């Protein structure tokens, strides 16, 4: 298989065939992220993509799950994306799932009929980086959309029939009272979008990013591990929807927590409280084992 630059995928796509349909991220301006800084965003040609699918067919024989890389496959023109899906289904008749990242601006750029056509064609799961529901914070991290627009993008994906997985970032507001605002507004936007999955990641300072520079200059102060757990607990306390599957198993997190809201909410909060009561770092993932 041919890939340009580093390839990233969600933890849940570990067993999927990774097909690179775009190189880089269409937005690529978030202050905390360095994932695609080594690439110039462009959409690969259909002929290149078709050849890669043929190579995968020859190598794997059959695949059941495909993840469309890189950072925002939903940005591809709908006709081309439908052609890619058709080619995948032709090559892999037992294909069960096609998934991708979806940027909020790219999602809003597609009509509901377009989104529904992509869902009906076979893209069934999408990942949306919400990061926060705080409008001011979204502007500061240069996400490119307001909280209202982010909410609309998520609701459009759900309404179109996609199984939606949302990610949020613990510690994104830094120290101080804005941590509380970040947690509450984030829970609010999750309640409004009503995704199937919610994944919490923890901010890591990556050299070369604007957020790293802010930390070096002292205008941003990173939460300590226990403060990130307090923020996670506050998000869980303010989520009111049912049937939401929550995970904090990403390598950036200090404490793996998992369960279904509302059924397992108290169990998850009790786990967090048990660590907060002792404040013993032996229960946490060490800094050397964390990543982003």
Which architecture per CATH?
A: Alpha-Beta Barrel
- What is the H/E string? EEEHEHEHHEHHEHEHHEEH
What is the CATH topology descriptor? TIM Barrel
Helix/sheet category: alpha/beta
Number of helices: 10
Number of strands: 10
First-last Cα distance: 24 Å
* CATH homologous superfamily caption: Aldolase class I
Report the uncertain regions. Answer: none
Q: What integer is the average pLDDT?
A: 94
CATH classification, class level: Alpha Beta
Spatial ordering of strands, largest sheet: 1-4-5-6-7-8-9-10
What is the molecular shape? Answer: globular
The tally of structural domains comes to 1
- The Cα radius of gyration reads 19 Å
Helical content, roughly?
A: 25-40%
Largest sheet: 8 strands, mixed
What share of residues are in beta strands? 15-25%
Task: Describe this structure as you would to a colleague.
This protein is of the alpha/beta class. The protein has one domain (11-284): Aldolase class I (TIM Barrel), CATH 3.20.20. The chain has ten helices and ten strands. It has helices at 46-60, 78-91, 104-108, 112-121, 135-140, 147-159, 178-193, 210-217, 225-238, 265-278, and strands at residues 17-20, 22-23, 42-43, 65-69, 97-101, 123-131, 163-170, 197-202, 244-247, 258-261. It has an eight-stranded mixed beta sheet with strand order 1-4-5-6-7-8-9-10. It has a two-stranded antiparallel sheet with strand order 2-3. Helix 6 packs parallel to helix 7 and helix 7 (178-193) runs parallel beside helix 9 (225-238). The radius of gyration is 19 Å and the shape is globular. The mean pLDDT is 94.
């Amino acid at each position: 298989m041919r890939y340009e630059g580093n390839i990233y995928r969600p933890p849940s796509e570990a067993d999927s065939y990774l097909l690179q349909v775009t190189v880089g991220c269409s937005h690529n301006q978030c202050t905390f992220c360095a994932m695609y800084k080594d690439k110039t965003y462009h959409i690969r040609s259909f002929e290149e993509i078709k050849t890669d699918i043929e190579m995968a067919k020859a190598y794997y024989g059959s695949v059941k799950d495909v993840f469309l890389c890189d950072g925002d496959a939903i940005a591809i023109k709908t006709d081309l994306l439908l052609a890619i899906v058709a080619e995948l289904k032709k090559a892999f008749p037992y294909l069960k799932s096609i998934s991708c990242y979806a940027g909020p601006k790219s999602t809003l750029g597609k009509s509901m009929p377009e989104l529904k056509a992509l869902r009906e064609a076979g893209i069934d799961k999408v990942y949306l980086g919400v990061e926060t529901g705080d409008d001011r914070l979204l502007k500061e991290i240069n996400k490119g959309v307001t909280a209202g627009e982010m909410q609309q993008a998520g609701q459009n994906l759900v309404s179109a029939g996609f199984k939606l997985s949302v990610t949020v970032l613990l510690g994104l507001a830094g120290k101080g009272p804005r941590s509380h605002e970040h947690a509450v507004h984030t829970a609010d936007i999750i309640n409004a979008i009503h995704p199937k999955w919610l994944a919490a990641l923890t901010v890591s300072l990556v050299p070369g990013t604007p957020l790293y520079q802010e930390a070096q200059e002292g205008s941003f102060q990173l939460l300590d591990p226990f403060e990130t757990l307090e923020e996670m607990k506050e998000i869980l306390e303010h989520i009111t929807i049912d049937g939401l599957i929550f995970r904090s198993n990403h390598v950036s997190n200090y404490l793996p927590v998992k369960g279904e809201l509302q059924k397992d909410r108290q169990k998850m909060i009790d786990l967090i409280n048990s660590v907060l009561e002792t404040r013993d770092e032996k229960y946490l993932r060490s800094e050397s084992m964390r990543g982003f």
